[in-house]
Amino acid sequence: MARGWLEVLPGAVAALGGLLLLLSRNRATATLGGWLSVIAGAWFVVGRAFAGPLALGDVGSPVASTDTQRVWLELSYFYGLGALIVFLGAFALGRVSVRSVRDVEFARRPVAVEREPVVRHESAVEREPAAVVTDDETPRSAGWRDRVGLFGRGHTRAAH
């Protein structure tokens, strides 16, 4: 029972969180996947300490002939693995939480307005197809890259 709580469950939750991060199409699902992976990694790190007080059972001792091998097995199977999962999940959460260039451009997109129908003759009213009129975009302020001059004038903005 202890292996299920301390090895299988956090591994399955970390895999589910990673899949949500990879396959998500919106920020909320990706955030959920990131938090699931962070929680699973943290459980890999602290789960063995809580196994006794929560009466989850004992995983047992690692199969190793020396103390050095035992330490390396503990670090690689639980603590190191958990720290790596927490790091990757936190990295993904930080990446998801930042607004991208596409989000800002979508918010600044011009609004379409329909024109009134045009009357060509007094006797007959004919409508032209509604034309789309866009407001001129406001010029963007110079970013830090433009101020510092790290890139030439022909650089392109990367969309995240």
Topology diagram in text:
Layout: H1 2-23, H2 27-51, H3 67-97, H4 101-107, E1 113-114, E2 132-133, H5 144-148
Antiparallel strand pairs: 1-2
Helix pairs in contact: 1-2, 1-3, 2-3
Which labels suit this protein?
single chain, about 160 residues, mainly alpha, two-stranded antiparallel sheet, about 55% helix, about 0% strand, rod-shaped
Question: Span between N and C termini?
Answer: 43 Å
State the helix count: 5
Would you list the SSEs in sequence order as H and E?
HHHHEEH
General shape: rod-shaped
Rg value: 28 Å
What's the short version?
With 160 residues, the chain is mainly α.
Commentary on this structure:
The chain contains 5 helices and 2 strands. With about 160 residues, it is mainly alpha-helical. The protein has a domain of about 100 residues. The protein has a two-stranded antiparallel sheet with strand order 1-2. Helix 1 packs antiparallel against helix 2, helix 1 runs parallel beside helix 3 and helix 2 packs antiparallel against helix 3. It is rod-shaped, with a radius of gyration of 28 Å. The model has no long low-confidence stretch (mean pLDDT about 80).
